[in-house]
Design brief:
Elements: E1 4-7, H1 13-27, H2 35-43, E2 51-56, E3 62-71, E4 80-88, H3 97-112, E5 116-118, H4 126-135
Parallel strand pairs: 4-5
Antiparallel strand pairs: 1-2, 2-3, 3-4
Helix pairs in contact: 3-4
């Protein structure tokens, strides 16, 4: 499958929102109340993001999204890039879309001079983790949240 990864554009709202809702369903989250605000931020992101890349299939259909942002850290002078959300249409999984999106985020982070790209996933995301194990190294960190 030929995949085109590009920044999101205003005309992508319907396709993006369908994927965004699918992402929420996958993780058992309900973030709908902030969807309009997020969309506006993605169209006109502040300097550190959030930014959005979408993946298009050969026929121009938006089949994946990646949201990412940059932040400072106390460990390096360079920023880090956090891949906040990654999701592909369930009917197109296993065709390289997730990898293409991750590689595009890597390229954006390299261009920005980021010291690291990282993300979180849940333990039950076995299919996603099969890909992640190929394109990154799992770390020993455990997340705590309030």
């Amino acid at each position: 499958m030929a995949i085109n990864v590009r920044p999101i554009s205003k005309g992508d709202r319907e396709a993006w929102e369908k994927l965004w809702l699918g992402y929420q369903e996958f993780y058992g989250a309900d973030l709908r109340s902030g969807t309009d605000m997020l969309w506006q931020r993605l169209l006109s992101p502040p300097a550190d993001g959030p930014f959005c890349l979408v993946a298009e299939s050969e026929d121009g259909k938006v089949v994946g999204l990646a949201h990412y942002l940059y932040h400072a850290t106390t460990w390096t002078p360079e920023p880090r890039c956090y891949l906040n959300d990654l999701f592909t249409d369930k009917n197109t999984r296993g065709r390289g879309i997730g990898r293409a999106l991750i590689e595009a985020v890597y390229a954006a982070a390299d261009e920005r001079g980021a010291a690291q790209v990282y993300w979180l996933t849940q333990e039950f995301n076995e299919k996603g983790r099969l890909l992640y194990d190929k394109v990154a190294e799992v770390t020993p960190f455990i997340k705590y949240a309030r």
